[in-house]
């Protein structure tokens, strides 16, 4: 029996991978794809470039892994809360609050930074980012369609359009406030205020009243 305080090789490898993914999320959030620096990522995570290349074949391989990690993190932290709500309107408002809290994480800004970097380009990273956005839009579209079917959301706009507008409005809100997170002279917007703004944004797009 191995000692409980001694990690296996697989466990050490996974810890290294997680540290590199988190450092990469910070790097992408701050500098975007163009100035993404593997040496800086490795140093920030506390490893050598050799350790990084032992985990990932190249820059794009690492970034694609970061996108997958971001998607999985969102599903755990936000998606699971949305799934718990049976009422579609309540679920969309939970999504708004969850997105607000999630947007404070470096991991959340990764997709925004990459989407801006690859807008209109045919690139493996850009395609994976768009696939992730498409999955999120699909989830919102289904909730909007359920709300329209229940009569709680207006039917004068197609569910796909409302879902796209909803996510675009939230993204615009978070982009507008994101720079504060890296400005030491400007205090970041407190999470409760950001959640309130996110809920009001979603309510406005959906035409809800009294929210």
Write the layout of secondary structure elements.
Elements: H1 9-31, H2 38-45, H3 49-55, H4 59-84, H5 88-102, H6 106-117, H7 124-150, H8 159-178, H9 191-206
Helix pairs in contact: 1-2, 1-4, 1-6, 4-5, 4-6, 4-7, 5-7, 5-9, 6-7, 7-8, 8-9
Protein name: TetR/AcrR family transcriptional regulator
InterPro entries: Homeodomain-like_sf, HTH-type_TetR-like_transc_reg, HTH_TetR, Tet_transcr_reg_TetR-rel_C_sf
Domain HTH tetR-type: 14-74
Structure characterization notes:
- It comes from Actinoplanes oblitus.
- This is TetR/AcrR family transcriptional regulator.
- Pfam families: TetR_N.
- Residues 37-56 bind DNA.
- Helices cover 73% and strands 0% of the residues.
- The protein is mostly helical and 211 residues long.
- It has a single domain, classed as Orthogonal Bundle (Tetracycline Repressor, domain 2).
- α4 (59-84) crosses α6 (106-117), α6 crosses α7 and α8 runs antiparallel to α9 (191-206).
- The chain is elongated.
Give the proportion of residues in helices. over 70%
Largest sheet: none
Shape designation: elongated
Q: Tell how many strands the DSSP assignment holds.
A: 0
For the record, the CATH class is Mainly Alpha
Mean pLDDT value: 87
Radius of gyration: 19 Å
* Protein structure class: mainly alpha
CATH topology: Tetracycline Repressor, domain 2
């Amino acid at each position: 029996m191995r000692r409980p305080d001694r990690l296996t090789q697989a466990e050490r490898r996974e810890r290294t991978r997680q540290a590199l993914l988190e450092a990469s999320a910070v790097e992408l959030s701050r500098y975007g794809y163009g100035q993404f620096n593997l040496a800086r990522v490795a140093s920030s995570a506390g490893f050598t470039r050799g350790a990084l290349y032992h985990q990932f074949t190249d820059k794009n391989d690492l970034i694609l892994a970061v996108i997958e990690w971001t998607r999985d993190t969102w599903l755990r932290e936000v998606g699971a809360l949305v799934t718990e709500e049976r009422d579609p309107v309540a679920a969309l408002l939970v999504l708004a609050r969850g997105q607000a809290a999630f947007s404070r994480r470096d991991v959340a800004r990764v997709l925004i930074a990459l989407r801006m970097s690859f807008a209109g380009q045919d690139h493996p990273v850009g395609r994976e980012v768009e696939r992730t956005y498409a999955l999120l839009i699909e989830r919102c579209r289904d909730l909007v369609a359920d709300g329209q079917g229940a009569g709680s959301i207006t039917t004068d706009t197609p569910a796909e359009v409302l879902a796209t507008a909803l996510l675009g409005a939230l993204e615009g809100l978070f982009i507008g406030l994101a720079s504060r997170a890296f400005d030491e002279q400007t205090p970041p917007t407190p999470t409760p205020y950001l959640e309130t703004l996110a809920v009001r944004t979603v309510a406005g797009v959906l035409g809800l009243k009294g929210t």
